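Entry 12.
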Amino acid sequence: MKNFKIDIVSDVMCPWCVVGYKNLETALEQLKDEMSADITWHPFELNPDMPIEGQDLNEHLMQKYNLSEEQGDENRKNMFEAGKRAGFTFNFDGKRIMINSFDLHRLLMWAREEGKQTELKLAFFEAHFTDLKYLNQEEALLDVVEKVGLDKETARGILHSDKYVQDVRQEQDNFKQMGISSVPTFIINDKYALTGGQPSDSFIQALKQISEEEAKQDA
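Predicted 3D structure (tokens):
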């Protein structure tokens, strides 16, 4: 059984990050008799200068990417369909906001130590994109933490301290120095990188190819 080390550089605010992960998950399920993976999530901030109150998402995207209303509608339609194919629901019916995700990354670093990082990451994705929770509001954020079985008051203590601040910044700097400037980026066995919301077939092909290459190197 081949076991991969997969590091995912990602932001909770990035819809393609959840699409890509769900497709990776499907690929690993289809390959479960041949291979497995240890997955670690790493921080990336799409909008590090975003104020704590956040910004209306449609307004933000139109400003950042100079999109027309029609282009915005088309993007949402494409995103909804990509999510549906991946098994994830994007909700475009209510008011959505873009927030600064730094505190989410601090909690995800703690969750890594607690063995619940992927669970918390997926819960954040669902809260933000499906349930339209405002994760810049402390109680909403802590409810998600509690939902995956992590201690709410420990999480509150982290939010009110500088714990994991330097750790998150250090990891962000490390990946920037490696040349990573977009998310999601999937780094496999510290050597191979896939970017974007790849379909599951692309992950299957890549994992099989890497497995074959490494088998030759080990021979």
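Annotation: The mean pLDDT is 95. The first strand starts at residue 2 and ends at 10.
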